[in-house]
Amino acid sequence: MTAALVAEGVTKSYGDVTALDGVSLSVDAGEVFGLVGPNGAGKTTLVRALTGTTAVTGEVSLLGREPTAVDPSRIGLLPQSFSPAGRLTPRELLAQYAGRYDAGRDPAAVLADVGIEGGPAEQWYEELSGGQKRRVCVAIALVNDPDVLFLDEPTTGIDPAGRRALWELLEELAAGGTTVFLTSHSMAEVERLSDRVGFLTEGDLVTVGSPRDLVETHGGASRLLVETDATPAGLTETLSHAVSTRGDRLVVEDVGPREIGDVVDALDAAGLAFESLTWKQPDLEDVYLELTGDAFEGSAAVTAASPPATAGEDQ
Ligand SMILES: Nc1ncnc2c1ncn2[C@@H]1O[C@H](COP(=O)(O)OP(=O)(O)OP(=O)(O)O)[C@@H](O)[C@H]1O
């Protein structure tokens, strides 16, 4: 598989702040790579490094060349902060951006792809809603039908239906061979779209893997979340699972689907009144919380009970 993107030992500092600390990664042509990490982790800086829009130390190769030497018509970039001219309509903006390329796409078709049609396509950009503006920005990044598409938090502000429509559009592009480098704070988005996900914390790419492998390795076991105002005193005698608190919820750890009834019985036996129960299989959000060290923030172990009687079942 040919690499579309390669970074080796990429480092970037702003004064005393090390935004990137020797990041190395390779993204295959046609791959969708999701980059996640806390605010200030260095995600935008890495996008800028990979697109040649900020100077870094280390090596960066985009489509086999230095980023600044790549034909711009092959690259699509949606920066995190992007404000096109406010007093142009989406249709005019798209025509303007398409005009920069020999073979730009039909502006109306690209706008339709991101759900901007009819009235909003003819309104000044500055008069659009936040989500509509973001859709137009995505369209601008797509207008040259790029081989490699960088999307820095593309769906921020876009409503749930629009977000799903955009996911489908990105899936179509990926199926057609477009390489996508995506940053997002939505773990659902990253989990759904990405072939591989990289976790960046404090400028350090700590882990890279497929969502499935990451969840298996770092996601922990299935758990039961119990919404309750009551204190969990007394559970120790009745429950053979570890219990912790997370915010205003109790977390009963390592509960397989066939154990849920037993746990509920144990909660009843302990006289614990609860508002709701949610059984949760581990997902990328759990991986995120684990890898960024936030998994147990605000939580405390309540019991360290003996292992569940049916440990290993249904995990
Ligand atoms: N132009 C700049 N001048 C000074 N410091 C900067 C600049 N750009 C970024 N930084 C710093 O570099 C670090 C990484 O910032 P970056 O924007 O890459 O993080 P991020 O992971 O994209 O964050 P977020 O999730 O909030 O968008 C931060 O500490 C930030 O303050």
Protein described:
The chain has helices spanning 43-50, 90-98, 107-113, 130-142, 160-175, 187-193, 211-218, 235-238, 260-269, 284-291; strands at 3-14, 17-28, 32-36, 57-62, 75-78, 148-152, 179-183, 196-201, 204-209, 223-227, 243-246, 249-252, 276-280, 299-303. The protein has 315 residues and is an alpha/beta fold. Helix 2 packs across helix 3 (107-113) and helix 7 (211-218) packs across helix 10 (284-291). It is globular and about 75 Å long. Residues 295-315 have low confidence and may be disordered. Residues 14, 17, 19, 37, 39-45, 80 line the site of adenosine-5'-triphosphate.
Structure characteristics:
315 residues; alpha/beta; Rossmann fold; Alpha-Beta Plaits; 2 domains; six-stranded mixed β-sheet; 14 strands; 27% strand; binds adenosine-5'-triphosphate; nucleotide-binding; ABC-2 type transport system ATP-binding protein; ATP-binding
Question: What can be said about this structure in brief?
Answer:
This is ABC-2 type transport system ATP-binding protein. It contains 10 helices and 14 strands. With 315 residues, it is an alpha/beta fold.
Q: Main β-sheet, in a few words?
A: 6 strands, mixed
How much of the sequence lies in strands comes to: 25-35%
Low-confidence stretches: 295-315
Q: Say which CATH homologous superfamily of the largest domain is assigned.
A: P-loop containing nucleotide triphosphate hydrolases
CATH architecture of the largest domain: 3-Layer(aba) Sandwich
Number of strands: 14
Radius of gyration: 23 Å
Domain ABC transporter: 5-227
Keywords: ATP-binding, Nucleotide-binding, Transport
Pfam families: ABC_tran
Protein name: ABC-2 type transport system ATP-binding protein
